[in-house]
Every structure is written in structure tokens, then in C-alpha cells.
Description:
By secondary structure, the protein is mainly β. The protein contains 5 helices and 37 strands. The strands form 11 sheets. A 6-stranded antiparallel β-barrel has the order 15-17-20-19-18-22. A hairpin with a 5-residue loop joins strand 5 (about 105-110) and strand 6 (about 115-120). The longest helix is centred in the N-terminal third of the chain and has 16 residues, at about 10-25. The chain starts with 9 loop residues before the first helix and ends in a 7-residue tail after the last strand. The relative contact order is 0.15.
Amino acid sequence: MANTQKVMTLADTAQLIAKVHANAAKGVRFEYDGTKGEYGNIASYFAAHKDGKVYGVKFPKYTYSNTPTGVKTRDNANLAIEISTNDKAGRDDYVPLNAFRVWDVNATVDDDGVPHVTAIDGIDTRFKRDGSNGDVYVMTCPGYYKLDSTSTHNEFLYSDTQYDGYAPLPGVLLPDGSKRPCLLFAKYAASLDSQQRPLSVSGKEIDREFGSQNRAIDYALKKGKGYAGRCAGDNFYIQLMLMLKYATKNSDVLGGCWQYTPQTAVTKAETGVKRVIIATSSAGNFDIGSTINIGTDKERNSAGNYSAARARTILSKTNLDANNTALNLDGDAITTTTACFVSSMPWKTGATDKLLGTDGRPSAAFAANHQPIRLQGIELFNGIYETDADLIVNAVKESDDKGRLDIYRVFDITKASKTSTANYTKIGEFPARTKAIDNSWRYAEDFTLSNGVLIPTGIGATSATGLCDGVYANPLASQGLRQVLRFGFLWNGAACGAFAVSLTGGLAYRWWSIGGRLSALGRTKA
């Protein structure tokens, strides 16, 4: 009788092993789908690389201790990081970890809010950061977090795995509840193209025309319904990464262009040159790599401020004699007169492109508070406010000695408003004001967490205690809907940082010191 039992031949075994390996390998490497023009296995890549580790950081509540310093816990306990510069790569234990690993990518966002990654830096030759292949984002895995609180401490926990009690990072979930395959964060603050569409590309002036809540809504929509100005998900990620990686709430550990205010007269007129001559005694106030305007008006919001040159990068300096030094500039040749002034301006995008690490600032030779920084590959703190597109604050005068600041969030940016909070959810309040502290910076002591937004609390801290950042508000002097301005600008000083907010401008208010940023996370589930 014939043996009908299946006998595995050597060839059968080889095929089975190959199939098992193929299934296991699915997602091990990013795979480009040439027919669709994008990477098609982003979600499976991150699933394949999950390690399930939990990274924690524990901070004392302000009422227990006012220190901004925390303690790393769980799998974060022994991880170290040093900031990098253009000349030195610092130690960074986070680089290979799935929960923290980042890639620079070119990508688009469709009308439903779904990201499409078209090129990855270091993996293919299509990637470009100058805009020739589209916007530049920083890509990372969808992450999950938990905030454990006791009477004395707050502990943030973060993982690439969703354990019980862990919430997806703001922006992970699309409005229908499905998950984005990855998180994308605009690498650069926004410039604008010829059609007033916001961009995230290197080497551009951060455009003040995008600098209001209203413009963030109107101009981002020109790119499609999936795009937004910066949103709660962008803010929370930056704040969480600062706390986890550096065990501090004080972003001064990295730096930021908060105290870079020089202006000086042109000392010698020239025609058709790529430089500007100023007093040698003033030249040291201007850092190589920074951005300047040259014009007849010292007021930075005036067109006269850049009548001779706008948003030029200082490439180098040439000492001409004891009294005169030339600042050598990028761009076309210019003509200057002794009626002109040189003014420091917010750094152009790409100022941190030469860093030899994921986090850091360009130069160890220049003051930390003169320079932009990079955190998790994202360039930040260029010396200009960035407007939130999904938050509105209503400033209310309750009495002659009390004003409150109600916070409203819209979760789907397609429902955002330029005039009303009708489609918004009230998620909390910024610290109230009395007449004595109205229209001023006050340092936040601690935070609450509501609907994916860290809300500063208290007014009694300093630049070295609590959150180390300030909240500026004037609900007694002026009432109505206000935009939420993040981070700070050239001369706000120590009040600036990852938790800082200014709440005095109307939803349409614009000024030279206000910019914006694209967000890929505007369409989010409540």
C-alpha cells in the first residue's frame, strides 16, 4: 500500500524556512512602493521594531519642591545624553532606541490626515531638504504615554507599546479612531511659497505672513485639508522629549535664541558688495550663522528695516582696521549707506542642519541664548514665536481685580474658526490674573494635563524653578479671543522656552516676531 503521508523533502524544508524568515522580516526594513511613489510599510516597520520598554521621568510637584530637575526611571534610568554642536557629536544613548529614533523625511499629508512618506534621508537619494522634493518632516514611531501622580510627584511614562492605562500621543489617532502609521513633525518653522502655502524646508526666512492663528488656518488649507499650523500634538511631543531625555523642565539646558538683540549703524557705504561694514566694537555682538536685516529704519516691523537687505546669513567676518569690520553675507550683492542700520533677526531655517547629533545647538563658542536648538531632530527656538492653530484663549474680566483665561481646543482642524469657539472644547484655564500682575510675564510653577495639552499652573516660580518659563497675559486690560503664541522671540529672555506662552494678541494679530509651523497632526480624534 502506498504511503500517502506527506514527506518533507529538503526542498520543502528550505521553502518553509524561507517563508518563515520572509514573514519575520516583513517590516524589518523600509520598503519603497514605486507604483505609489511612497514607502508602503511604515506601520509594519515600527511594529517589527517595538521593544516594549518603558521610559520614565519623575518630577516633584512645586508644592513639594520647586526644583525643575527630575529623576529618570524605569528603562530611562541609566540613559545619558550630551548636546551636540556643528563640531562635536555628544553622547546620545537614545539614538538607536525605537521609541526615540527619528528620521528626516519628505512627506505629504492627504485630506484625511494620513501621512505619506516619499523619501527618507540616508536610505534613498530622493530625499531633499531644500524643498525640491517637498516638505521636510521628522518621522518617529507612534508612542504612548501615561502620567502617574501622587501628592508629591508627577511621573511621565513613555513607550512604543500601548500598555493598559497608556494613551496614544496627541496626534496618533485620526478622527475615525484609526492610527497614523507614524508621527511626522515639521523639521523647520514655516516659510511660504509664491502662492502663500506654508513650507517646511531649509535655508528660508521664517515668514511673518504665516504668523497668526487666522493665517495658520487659511494658509495651511491652501495645501489641503490634512495640513494645519502647529498643533497640540507638536507641542506635547517637544515638551515630553525634553523632560524624558534631559530630566528637566528647563529648556535652557539646550539653549534658544531669546537674548539676541543687537542693532548697529553702518560705518562705511558700499555698492555692489556681499558684505556690510560696521564698527569693530560692535562686530562681536553678531554671531556667524545668524540672520540680519539692513535698512534705514531700526523698527524691525517696518519695510525700511530691510530696505538694503533682508534675512541675510552672516557667513564670516573680516577685520578691516581698528575701527571697521565687515560682516560677509550670503545672497546677492547689495548697496549700503551710512544711513542704514544692521538688525539681528530670527535665524533662518536650517540653522541647525550641520549638527553632528540629534539634539544640540550650532556652536559652543557663542552664547546658548543666541542660538536656535534641535530636539529629536526638530529645529526650534529660532528667535520667533510660533502660533498654535488648534487652541484659542478667551480672556475674560470677571471683576476689577480678577481676569481669567479660558482655553479651547479644536481636535479636527477642518472645524477650526477664526472668530468663535463654537466647535471647540474648553479644556482648562491658564493662571488667573489680578490687577497687580496683569500685562506681565509670570513664571509658571507646575502643569496640569488636559486633552493632550500641558497647561501651566501658578505664577510664583522663577526662571530657575518650576517650569522655568513664563506666561504673558492681560485679561484685565483687554478681553476677547486670543491666540496662543509659543516659545518666545529675540529679546523675551529667560521667560522663553518649551512651556512659555504669550496670550495678548487677537486671532488675526501679526508682527515681525510671530511665525508659524506646519503640522501633520491637525486632524485628530478627540
